[in-house]
């Protein structure tokens, strides 16, 4: 998988979503966390060769693909889970994090979970929302909260017309 160039009439978001879709179809999400694999992500080349990886592997691979397309991106660590206690902001021990995602800096930042096959860039699964995250960036000085969806973000509207016979 090579980093793609933005579509001729597309945006940076289109490119990110295209890379995310390709990553989802070419690299299976499988958590095998034995030995060093529990803490150390595999190289992007190794993940591509194996065609599977855990959250760390997929986050590192997506970050590398985005950077190759001149899009700044960083891996972010968090303790995901709706029923999981969040990381203690004042004392975030490394062992408190259980998930890796990607953030593209900006205003607002674009958060991406490459393990969620249904979410597009900027749409985090509920288990990732509103959690303290440690961004692996040289400028990071503290934890930041991942964004939370508003109820309007989860609304779907459909219009149906029914025609009844006169009788």
Topology at a glance:
Layout: H1 12-26, E1 28-29, H2 44-50, E2 52-53, H3 55-68, E3 74-78, E4 99-104, E5 110-112, E6 132-135, E7 144-145
Parallel strand pairs: 1-2
Antiparallel strand pairs: 3-4, 3-6, 4-5, 6-7
Helix pairs in contact: 1-3, 2-3
Question: Quick gist of this model?
Answer:
By secondary structure, the chain is of the alpha+beta class. It has helices at 12-26, 44-50, 55-68; strands at residues 28-29, 52-53, 74-78, 99-104, 110-112, 132-135, 144-145.
Question: What characterizes the major β-sheet?
Answer: 5 strands, antiparallel
Whole-number average pLDDT?
85
Distance between the termini: 61 Å
Number of helices: 3
Contiguous uncertain segments of 5+ residues: none
Pairing-aware structural class of the strands and helices? Answer: alpha+beta
Radius of gyration, rounded? 18 Å
Which percent range fits the helix content?
A: 10-25%
- How many DSSP-defined strands? 7
Roughly what fraction of the amino acids lie in strands?
A: 5-15%
Biggest sheet: strand arrangement: 5-4-3-6-7
What is the helix/strand order?
Answer: HEHEHEEEEE
Q: In one word, what is the shape?
A: globular
């Amino acid at each position: 998988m090579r980093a793609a160039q933005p579509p001729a009439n597309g945006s940076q978001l289109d490119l990110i979503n295209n890379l995310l879709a390709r990553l989802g179809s070419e690299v299976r999400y499988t958590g095998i966390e034995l030995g060093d694999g529990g803490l150390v992500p595999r190289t992007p080349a190794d993940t591509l060769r194996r065609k599977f990886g855990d959250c760390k592997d997929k986050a590192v691979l997506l970050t590398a693909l985005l950077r190759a397309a001149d899009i700044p991106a960083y891996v972010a660590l968090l303790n995901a889970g709706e029923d999981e206690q969040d990381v203690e902001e004042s004392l975030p021990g490394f062992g408190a994090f259980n998930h890796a995602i990607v953030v593209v800096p900006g205003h607002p930042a674009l958060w991406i979970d490459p393990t969620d096959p249904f979410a597009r860039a900027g749409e985090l699964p509920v288990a990732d929302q509103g959690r303290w995250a440690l961004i692996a960036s040289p400028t990071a000085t503290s934890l930041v909260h991942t964004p939370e969806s508003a109820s309007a973000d989860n609304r779907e509207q459909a219009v149906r017309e029914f025609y009844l016979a006169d009788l």
